[in-house]
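Sample intake sheet
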Amino acid sequence: MKIIVCAKQVPDTNEVKIDPVKNTLIRDGVPSILNPDDANALEAALTVKDANPGTTVSVISMGPPQAMYMLRECIAMGADDAYLLSSRAFGGADTCATSTTLAAGIKKIGDYDIIFSGRQAIDGDTAQVGPQMGQRLGLPVVTYVQKVRELKEGSVIVERQLEDGYEVVEVPTPAVLTCVKELNEPRYMSVAGIIHACEDSPITVWDENDVELAPEQCGLTASPTKVLKSFTPPPKGKGEMLSGTVDEMAKALVGRLNEKHII
């Protein structure tokens, strides 16, 4: 069995700050990490690999050259090989152009049974790339996968997360499955895996020519979405804590509301 995992290197949102003047992200000094939902997707692929000898797991990503560090982490966790789609032509891509580029890279890899990806990336939160990629590849897509129940000959049975429960879906393979964090707990890199990733695992790098994309099919040129600015909302005022008995706090609350002419 051949599994492909789509992964993205993202800024650690716990460290991201906004320039109050320019209203843009301050990226200097912000560490980059493997997108959390993609880590769950990789763990799902590695779990299938552990249970099915002979299975191989390839990781593909689109990004700048420094994304190779993230791909080596994926190999250190247990992936067999990795591919990086990297070119200035890919810069400025929105979800539409990103899914086109990833689909082109996956077509070049070829021979796959399941494509795992995260539900969404924490730097965009669109949850669009996985489904769009499946559409470009002509594959069935199941989103919000919270459990892989069974792999059968020619199909896979999964649980799809809903707001108030889940539904069981059987879908023919090859297929695209987007994963949520409830699916699993990603494993850590092993020492042997780190050594293997750093010394014995070259990462294949492709540009637009390698995946047969014209300049107008990728990057900013092929992106209908335009982001005007990013900003954080102004901080709220400090809250006031009331103390005393229930009757005393209720009376104090009514008094505060009267003062503000709310009631």
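Comment: The chain has a mean pLDDT of 90. The two ends are 66 Å apart (CA to CA).
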